[in-house]
Amino acid sequence: MKEIDWSTLGFHYTEPDYIVRSAYHNGVWEEPYATKDKYLHLHVSATCLQYGQEAFEGLKAFRGVDGKIRIFRWRENAKRMARSAEGLYMAPVPEQLFGKAIRLALEKNMDFVPPYGTGATLYFRPLLIGTTPRLGVGPGRDFEFIVIPSPIGPYYPGKFHCTSFIVNRHVDRAAPYGTGTFKVGGNYASSFRATEAAHAQGYDCLFLDSKYHRYIDECSAANFIGIRRVAGGYEYLTPRSSAILPSITNDSLMTLAREKGMKVTRRHIRLEELAQMSEAAACGTACVISPIDQVLDPERNKVYRFGAEPGPVLTDLYHALRDIQFGRAEDKHGWTEVIES
Ligand SMILES: *Cc1c(COP(=O)(O)O)cnc(C)c1O
Fold first, then answer.
1. Per-residue pLDDT reduced to its tens digit, 136-191
2. CB of 247 closer than 6 A to ligand 1?
3. Regarding beta strands 163-167 and 204-208, do their DSSP bridges make them parallel or antiparallel, or are they unpaired?
4. Hey, which of 71, 121, 220, 223 would you mutate to test ligand 1's pocket, going by the most ligand atoms within 8 Å of its Cβ?
5. Angle between the 248-259 and 312-325 helix axes, to the nearest 10 degrees?
6. For the chain, what is the largest distance between any 2 Cα atoms, rounded to a whole number of angstroms?
7. Residues 200, 236: contact at Cβ < 8 Å?
């Protein structure tokens, strides 16, 4: 086991021993291999640098209560990366190759899988870039797929807590039929003006739809969930939009919510509807659920409040998903690939 203080490990990059790489030339992917070299020998005119041909993913492996390692829903990440590749005119990484690279990255970095009970996990960052040198505008023909693993500390080192969000109508994250549904770096670069402005004021950013600035799209790197009381229970609400990323965490939580008897609805959600919700949150691989205590709309001089403590419905869903990831609850849906170690 590595000399790593897992409890103080932040939510940032810790260099692993190995990364995994596979290049694509002449229509063929090379066998993925592990290397300690974290630098690329990349042509300065590569299409990823010149024209933003880049997509990425994010997923985790968990050391369970039984000592086994579980990789969570990696096939969904592989499928999503293939869609992102199509979206940016890149060669998709075959699912089998994606899985092989993730497992190799895990095997070569076993010492970096945090022990059970620390709340820390091994995060994988798959990356796909265009590598063809090309100054004339156009897509490349050569690509590289890379998996960068990194142990990361618990998202909530203290207790499960809330975050405040702010709305910004002056910066759009992605166009209605642009690249918002793809997990690409360009969406992040274009959102930094809004997210950094929000952070400077002590908030995270809640993006509205780019066309009308009327409907909730998503949080900067996470989907939005609202909980509403309805006759006989609760409704799980999440936005329908042509500009948001289909979150695998959100998909998993919707399944769990249905199992708990909740009504699950995906539709356009107007910002003002926050007033009718009893709980709200951001969701994604990093945090699972990040409950929201308030959403500030400075231009309309409105604040939507949900209370300083995470609500009961989202807290319950948070624990339900984490229990599956850490092997404390039965994985009925086959979401985890168990690696014997
Ligand atoms: C990655 C990401 C999410 C969360 O997706 P998960 O699969 O749940 O991790 C949500 N929104 C954006 C914009 C993202 O890039």
1. 999 999 999 999 999 998 888 778 889 999 999 999 999 999 999 999 999 999 99
2. yes
3. parallel
4. 223
5. 110
6. 61
7. no
